[in-house]
Structure formats: C-alpha cells, structure tokens
Design brief:
The protein has 348 residues and is α/β, with parallel strands linked by helices. It has two domains: 148 residues, Rossmann fold (3-Layer(aba) Sandwich); 173 residues, 2-Layer Sandwich (Dihydrodipicolinate Reductase, domain 2), CATH 3.30.360. Helices cover 31% and strands 27% of the residues. The strands form two sheets. The protein has an eight-stranded mixed sheet with strand order 8-9-10-7-11-12-13-14, with helices on one face. A six-stranded parallel sheet has the order 3-2-1-4-5-6, with helices on both faces. It is globular, with a radius of gyration of 20 Å. Bound molecules: NADP nicotinamide-adenine-dinucleotide phosphate.
C-alpha cells in the first residue's frame, strides 16, 4: 500500500470572495495535509480580473488564467472544478463542467432548489464524475469530534433539542441592485446564504437520518428574506429551532444542543466557522471545553476529502456530504420557502 499523498489539480470558477478564501487555504502549508493541492487554472468573466485574483490572493503560483469558465472545464490538466459563483448559477456551471467530464466541488447552497440539484446529480451519475456540495463546516475536526461525543459516546445522553442562529448585520437597502444579497435572480436571502448553516447544525446535532417535518416563517422585504425561522421535528420528538437573519449579528455562542444528561454550547465567529464547544453535564457548574487548532480558514479539510475521494474513484463523498444529504437539505429549504413565501424568478 502506498503512503504517498494524492496530488489534485484545481480549476477555480469565479473570482469572488469565497473563491479567494478557498484558494488561499489550498496553497497553505500544513503538516497534516492529506493531499497536495495545485491551483491549475482560474476562470473569470474577464482575463484581467482573473490575473488580479492570482496576483492578490495566491502570489507565487502560476495557474493558467482564462477569461471564460468554459476554458477551465475544457482544460485537460484540471482534475476538479471548484464553483464559487452565486447560487443561481450553480446548476448551469455544474452541468457545463459535467458535460466536459469534470469532477466538481460546488459552493453552498448547492442549487436554488431541490429540482435543480436532482438534475445535476442525474447528469453526474450518467457521466460518472464526482460531485460534492462545499458544505465545508461539516468537515471540521470540531464537528467530527462533536458528532462522536453526541451520537456514539452519548456524553449528554439522548439529544432532543438544538438551537442555532446565524445572523449577520447587512444593510441590504444600501447595496447595489446587482448585489447577490439583494438580487432575487441571484438567489438573494438569508436562508440559502446563512440559514443553511443553522439547518446544518440542527441536522448534525440531532443526528437523525430521516426527513423531518418543517414549520417555518420568513420576513420578506421586496421578496428577499431578511429573517427565516424554522422548527424541524423528527418522529422521536427531537426538535431543531433554527434561524437566520440579516438584521443583526449573532452572539458568539451560536448553538446550544440539549440532551437528557446535559448540554453542549458551540461558539465561534459564526455558525460557518465554529471555534470551540463546551460540554456542561447536569449538576455541574464547570464545563469541559474542546478547543481546536485551525490554521487559515479551514477550507482545506473539505478539499482534502475531495482529493481522497477522487483518488480512489468515488463519485460522491459518502462519509460527510453525500448526495442524499444535499437533497435532504434542499428539500427542507424548499419547504421553508413554500411556507415563508420566498421565491426566485427562475421558479415563476
Ligand atoms: N463557504 C462559505 O463560507 C461561503 C462564504 C461566502 C459565500 N459562499 C457561497 O459562494 C457563492 C459566491 O459567494 P461570494 O460571496 O464569493 O460572491 P461574490 O463575492 O459576489 O462573487 C461571486 C463571483 O461569481 C462570478 N459571477 C458570475 N456571474 C455573476 C453575476 N451575475 N453576479 C455576480 N457574480 C457573478 C463573479 O466572478 P468572475 O467575475 O470572476 O466570473 C463573482 O466575483 C455563493 O453561492 C455563496 O453562498 C460560501
């Protein structure tokens, strides 16, 4: 058996904020890296923008820079395409990449709705390529440790309730009409942008495999949800109370998980980037804190997982972010919007 790390060559599609964070983490030097990551190509709406992206965010590297996304898909030296466009383009970008036989890591929300996601997975299956939603938080060692403590070791007994909030203060009215936070045709709204993380904590924290019942409410301004609240409930009585808002920033203790023997409080910059958690057992004032090292931002854990999967020929990430989980998440988000009223023009 070889112990050599696989090498994977990335083609980056779009040069916005999230792509800049992702590539910076790819090139980070880490002693625990499970793969060698190479930024092989960058595709942007303009060649100049692409070149500036490389010079600013990954100086010292020399990817091929293209003025179209299509050229990234067609580049034979690209092993996997990373898609960092607004959610409204994910379906089209994925289908184009699949047509060229490319493997894909696509940002969250994976698509605008579950019907689009099914279309992408069907095409991927036919073509035999790897596809994964970039729900990076699930790959954090913190989340893996927490899942083991909650659901294998049962440190707080049976988990019955999870609260999670992801709020950011964004002055949407002051943003230009074409902002992805304002333009409904780009998928604007707190739910798909940040509510998806609150939902993720509910699903991970409760640890139930079935599809939950959903009761939801949204506050819309010009059709854009500035607040979304959902209660998901499972047949065993477990409940998740999961919220998002662009009206106010959440406090650092963004998530509380309750069990029959105690609670866990998860804290950090935001629900997307947990920093540590504390286990408080009933009857004890003192909690046990679990802290985790995180050089850079933490996008490399999902990138390593993609590299390992592709290296052994898997078509999806079975352990952490399988297709059925992306589908379950989007089914719930669709139901929240059905009850709450947020719709995208593509759905009219
Ligand atoms: N995982 C995370 O923590 C995280 C954080 C933030 C965002 N995201 C996700 O990543 C995606 C992009 O978010 P972002 O914050 O990076 O957005 P952004 O800064 O606005 O960048 C999006 C990029 O997409 C490309 N694009 C293509 N058509 C566009 C259009 N009509 N309008 C705007 N951009 C267009 C542009 O790149 P080119 O001009 O180079 O083609 C643009 O720079 C979203 O799906 C979001 O949910 C994830």
């Amino acid at each position: 058996m070889t112990t050599e790390k696989p090498t994977i060559r990335w083609g980056i599609v779009a040069t916005g904020l999230i792509s800049s964070w992702f590539v910076q983490d790819l090139v980070l030097s880490r002693s625990d890296a499970k793969a060698n990551h190479i930024v092989q190509a960058v595709g942007s709406s303009s060649l100049e923008k692409g070149k500036a992206f490389v010079a600013t965010h990954i100086p010292g590297t020399a990817p091929t820079v293209y003025g179209t996304y299509e050229q990234v898909y067609a580049d034979p030296d690209v092993d996997v395409v990373y898609i960092g466009t607004p959610h409204a383009f994910h379906k089209e970008n994925c289908l184009d990449a699949i047509r060229h036989g490319k493997n894909i890591l696509c940002e969250k929300a994976f698509t605008l709705n579950v019907a689009e996601a099914r279309e992408v997975f069907e095409a991927a299956e036919k073509k035999g390529v790897f596809v994964m939603e970039a729900m990076w938080t699930r790959f954090f060692p913190l989340v893996k440790t927490l899942q083991k403590l909650l659901h294998t070791d049962k440190v707080i007994g049976d988990v019955h309730r999870v609260f999670c909030d992801f709020g950011l203060k964004i002055d949407i009215a002051s943003l230009p009409a074409e902002s992805r936070y304002k333009d409904l045709s780009l998928g604007a709204g707190s739910l798909l942008d940040i509510g998806i993380y609150s939902l993720t904590w509910g699903l991970v924290g409760l640890g139930q495999a079935e599809k939950p019942k959903v009761v939801a409410s949204q506050h819309l301004i010009h059709g854009v949800d500035v607040a979304s609240s959902m209660v998901i409930s499972f047949s065993g009585g477990q409940q998740g109370i999961l919220t998002s808002s662009t009206n106010a920033r959440t406090a650092r203790n963004f998530c509380r998980i309750e069990g029959t023997k105690g609670i866990v409080v998860v804290e950090g910059d935001a629900a997307s980037v947990p920093g540590f958690f504390t286990v408080y057992l009933d009857g004890s004032e003192e909690g046990k804190k679990y802290d985790f090292e995180k050089p850079g931002r933490g996008f490399y854990w999902e990138a390593d997982a993609v590299a390992l999967d592709i290296n052994v020929g898997r078509k999806q990430n079975e352990d952490t972010m399988p297709w059925v989980e992306t589908i379950r998440v989007l089914e719930i988000l669709d139901e929240v919007r059905r009850q709450g009223g947020a719709r995208f023009p593509q759905e009219e």
